[in-house]
Write a structure and sequence with these properties.
Blueprint lengths: L1 H9 L1 H12 L3 H22 L8 H11 L1 H21 L7 H4 L2 H18 L5 E9 L2 E8 L3 H24 L3 H21 L11 H67 L6 H29 L6 E4 H11 L1 H6 L3 E5 L5 E4 L1 H18 L7 E9 L2 E8 L27 H11 L3 E8 L2 E9 L10
Parallel strand pairs: 4-6
Antiparallel strand pairs: 1-2, 3-5, 6-7, 7-9, 8-9
Protein name: histidine kinase
Catalytic activity: ATP + protein L-histidine = ADP + protein N-phospho-L-histidine
Pfam families: HATPase_c, HisKA
C-alpha cells in the first residue's frame, strides 16, 4: 500500500511539467519538463524501496538501478534550466557565468552523470538491497560498493547547480523569470535538504516525497503566474506593433491615390501658366492652384515619411552609445543656444533596436528641448537611463517653458504643432518609431519650470525563448 501511494505521488511532478509544456511551449518549459521527469524518476526510485510486499527482490533491485537515473541526472538537469535562462534572457555578454555555464559544460556535466549512472550497475556502485525497519514497516535500503562515495558526492553537486542557477537569476533582465528562478532555486534547495535524509538508513522516512510534492505544486503555480504575466506583457508589445502596421496598410494606398491627381493637376497648371493668351487674373488663379498643389504635395510627402518611419531594422545595440551619438550630432546647436546636456551614464544597456531610427528620436527630443528653453536663462537637459520592470526608461528633462496639461494628449498627433514653422510630425514620428519597437513615449510632468518626457523600450523579446 505504501508503494502504490508513493508511486502515485512521484508522478505529480511529471504531470505538472507536462501541463506547463502544453500551456506554454517555450525553451524554458522544455528544460523544466526534463527536470520534472528526473524528479519523478527519483521519487519513483525511492518508492520501490517500499514494494517488497508486492514485487520480487530481483525485480525491485533491477528497477531500482534503472530508475536511479532520476537522482543521478538531477544536478545537470537543474543547471540546464539556469543555462536556458542565461542564454536566452540575459544580456550580460561579458559575464563569467557564460564561461562556466555553456553548452560545452552542460554537455560534459551530462556525460559525467551518465558515467556515474553506468557505474551504478556495477559492483562498485550498488551491490544489493537490505531490509531495515522504518516507521514500523520493513523497507529496503541500498548496499553500496567500494565507490559509493562517488554517488554521494555527485548528488552533492546539486548544491552547486542550485547556487549557480540562483546567481543566474540575478543576471536575467526579465523580472518575471528572475523571480521564478529565485523561487525555483531556493525551494528546491530546501527540498534537496529534506531528500538527503534518504541517504541515511536510520532516517528513511516519507519526508522527501512530501517535500517534492509541495515543491512541484508551488513551482507549477509560480511558473503559470510568470508565464501569464509574460504573455500579457508581450501582447501589449505586439499590439503596439500591430497598430503601427495597420496605419501603414490603411494610409499607403491612400497616399498613392492622392498623388495621381496631384501629378495631373501640377502638369496641367504648368502648361496653363505658359499660355500667353491668359490675362493676369487667370494667371493669378493658376498660381493659387500651383501653390495649393505644392502645399498638398508637401503634406503627402511628409506623411509618407511619417509612415515609413515605422519600418525598423532591429539589431542589438548599446543605447548609451546611441544617446551619446545624438548628443554629438546636436552639439553645434546646443553650443549656439548655450544649452548644457547632462547624461547620467549607466552601465552598457543592450537592446534590440533600429539604431538610426532611435537616434532620430533622441535628436528630435533634444531639439525640442532646445527650442523650449530659448526664453529661459538656465538651459539644461538632463538625460537619465534606468531599467524598470521589463522596460528601459530614458528620460529627457529640460528647463523649458513647459507644455499645458490640456495639450499633453495632442502633441503626439500628426500635424499638431505649436510652432510657427514645421509640419508637426516630429513627436508623432518619435511615437511611431517607438511603437514599432514595442515601446512608447509619454510626458511624465510639465510646468513653467520645465518638461520631462520618458521613452520606454522593451528590454526583453519573448519570442527569443519560444520553441520553433
Amino acid at each position: 500500500m505504501n508503494f502504490i501511494l508513493m508511486a502515485a505521488i512521484s508522478l505529480v511532478p511529471l504531470f505538472l511539467g507536462m501541463s506547463s509544456k502544453m500551456m506554454f511551449k517555450t525553451k524554458l518549459t522544455n528544460a523544466m519538463l526534463l527536470f520534472m521527469v528526473f524528479i519523478s524518476l527519483w521519487q519513483l526510485d525511492v518508492s520501490l524501496l517500499y514494494s517488497s510486499d508486492l514485487l520480487r527482490y530481483d525485480i525491485i533491485f533491477f528497477l531500482f538501478k534503472l530508475f536511479r537515473v532520476g537522482s543521478i541526472m538531477l544536478p545537470p538537469a537543474f543547471l540546464y534550466v539556469g543555462y536556458m535562462a542565461l542564454k536566452y534572457l540575459s544580456k550580460d555578454e561579458g559575464s563569467w557565468l557564460k564561461w562556466v555555464i555553456n553548452k560545452y559544460t552542460i554537455g560534459a556535466y551530462y556525460c559525467w552523470s551518465i558515467f556515474v549512472y553506468i557505474l551504478n550497475w556495477s559492483e562498485l556502485g550498488i551491490t544489493g538491497l537490505n531490509h531495515i525497519n522504518g516507521l514500523g514497516s520493513s523497507v529496503l535500503y541500498p548496499l553500496y560498493g567500494e565507490w559509493s562515495s562517488l554517488f554521494a558526492n555527485h548528488i552533492k553537486l546539486l548544491v552547486i547547480s542550485i547556487v549557480l542557477t540562483l546567481i543566474v537569476s540575478r543576471k536575467v533582465l526579465d523580472k518575471y523569470v528572475r523571480h521564478f528562478l529565485t523561487y525555483f532555486s531556493l525551494t528546491f534547495l530546501l527540498t534537496y535538504a529534506v531528500g538527503v535524509l534518504n541517504l541515511q538508513a536510520r532516517t528513511f522516512i516519507y519526508s522527501s516525497q512530501i517535500a517534492v510534492l509541495i515543491f512541484s505544486i508551488f513551482i507549477f503555480f509560480v511558473f503559470v503566474h510568470m508565464s501569464t504575466k509574460m504573455i500579457i506583457e508581450s501582447n501589449q508589445i505586439f499590439k503596439r506593433k500591430e497598430q503601427e502596421e495597420q496605419i501603414e496598410v490603411t494610409t499607403s494606398g491612400l497616399i498613392h491615390e492622392i498623388r495621381n491627381p496631384l501629378t495631373i493637376m501640377k502638369g496641367y497648371s504648368e502648361i496653363l501658366a505658359k499660355n500667353e493668351a491668359l490675362d493676369s487674373k487667370a494667371k493669378g488663379m493658376i498660381y493659387q492652384i500651383q501653390m495649393a498643389g505644392s502645399h498638398m504635395n508637401s503634406i503627402v510627402s511628409n506623411y509618407n515619411e511619417f509612415i515609413k518611419s515605422g519600418k525598423i531594422i532591429a539589431e542589438e545595440a548599446d543605447l548609451i552609445e546611441i544617446i551619446k551619438e545624438a548628443i554629438l550630432l546636436t552639439s553645434i546647436r546646443t553650443k549656439e543656444k548655450n544649452v548644457s546636456i547632462l547624461l547620467k551614464e549607466d552601465k552598457h544597456i543592450i537592446a534590440k533596436v533600429d539604431k538610426d531610427k532611435l537616434r532620430q528620436v533622441f535628436i528630435n527630443l533634444i531639439n525640442n528641448s532646445i527650442e523650449a528653453m530659448e526664453e529661459k536663462e538656465t538651459r539644461l537637459i538632463k538625460i537619465h537611463t534606468v531599467i524598470h520592470s521589463n522596460e528601459i526608461h530614458i528620460s529627457f528633462a529640460d528647463t523649458g517653458s513647459g507644455i499645458p496639461v490640456e495639450k499633453w494628449s495632442q502633441i503626439f498627433t500628426p500635424f499638431h504643432t505649436t510652432k510657427e514653422a514645421g509640419m508637426g510630425l516630429g513627436l508623432s514620428i518619435c511615437q511611431r518609431i517607438l511603437n514599432s519597437h514595442g515601446g512608447h513615449i509619454e510626458i511624465v510632468h510639465s510646468n513653467e519650470h520645465g518638461t520631462e518626457i520618458k521613452v520606454a523600450i522593451p528590454v526583453v523579446h519573448y519570442e527569443k525563448i519560444v520553441s520553433t
